[in-house]
Amino acid sequence: MKYLLITALLILTQPALAQDKVFTKRIDSWGITTGGDLYLKTKQGEEYIASLDQCPTEIVQEFEFPNVYVKGRFLHNGKAIQFYDRLTRNKGKVNCTLGELRIV
Prior knowledge:
Elements: E1 21-23, E2 27-32, E3 38-42, E4 47-53, H1 57-61, E5 66-70, E6 74-76, E7 80-85, E8 94-103
């Protein structure tokens, strides 16, 4: 777990606001929550969470050097993303789809 930020997030009692999209160059760190959602933190300190639809997150959490690939410049609802291990790029790729992107 050298490069993967795995964190247990406490969801506040206030409803989270929806966000249309996040520019990928603004992302500073990411991780998978204990609930199986994607967690993002921007360079400006904004935090987002998005559900991962049809995604075996337990496999991603086992990667030794995890990384994420996003085609395009923005993350948004329904965006396809791919997780992979930097050591074994051609094996063990996990394709997922983002659910609703929310501000934490």
